[in-house]
Design a protein that fits this description.
The chain is mostly helical.
Length: about 210
């Protein structure tokens, strides 16, 4: 199915949700675009609405189904991959989630964070943290170069923690070549995002 049509259906649901506040219609449209048309962004929105009880009664199992679907489709949503990855990392799953995911799977979680990083900064950040610290239960050892790779991507998505990890890596030469100039650049980016810098952002550079 043509991507333009999928996006149009998603935007219709978004219009119902944000402009008209017709939440039931918005939820139904997101669900249809997710499960009938395999559009990941709609799966994410449907999952969020089901989880929070918006436009329908709260239903964690339906939310998990939507998020899982949203990571599996060709037009996947990175936030869906990150959400399911976080569930797979848990020691035990809630009964509603267990009905969908069966059991914890740390190795799968790592793969989902890496996949989600193509489109979602949180997934990049979680992948970077795993490769920084290692994850014994997934048999993942610390890998400075992969940590830097995913932290850099998280920073590109404007996640301040990712920029801080990149700055620290340039400062110490961890996973990349040591570079004082780049350290200062990324440290300043982190401080700007955190509101810690005395340097004022111009209108051109302000985060929108």
């Amino acid at each position: 199915m043509h991507l333009v049509f999928l996006v149009a259906c998603h935007k219709l649901a978004d219009f119902f949700e944000t402009k008209k506040r017709r939440l039931v219609e918005a939820y139904d449209q997101y669900m249809e675009n997710c499960f009938k048309r395999d559009y990941g962004d709609s799966c994410f929105k449907a999952g969020q609405m089901a989880f929070h009880g918006t436009g329908r009664e709260k239903n964690v199992e339906e939310a998990t189904k939507a998020h899982k679907k949203g990571c599996e489709v060709n037009n996947f949503n990175g936030g869906c991959c990150d959400t399911i990855g976080m569930q797979y990392l848990k020691d035990t799953l809630e009964p509603e989630i267990k009905n969908v995911l069966s059991k914890p799977n740390p190795k799968k979680a790592v793969e989902l964070f890496k996949k989600g990083c193509e489109k979602d900064g949180f997934a990049c950040l979680h992948a970077a943290q795993i490769y920084r610290d290692g994850l014994d239960i997934a048999r993942v050892k610390p890998d400075p170069e992969l940590m830097f790779k995913y932290a850099f991507r998280a920073c590109e998505f404007r996640y301040k923690s990712g920029c801080k990890m990149v700055a620290d890596a340039y400062k110490t030469g961890t996973g990349t070549q040591q570079d004082d100039k780049l350290y200062a650049q990324y440290q300043n980016m982190y401080e700007l995002m955190s509101g810690q810098s005395n340097i004022k952002m111009t209108k051109k550079n302000k985060k929108r």
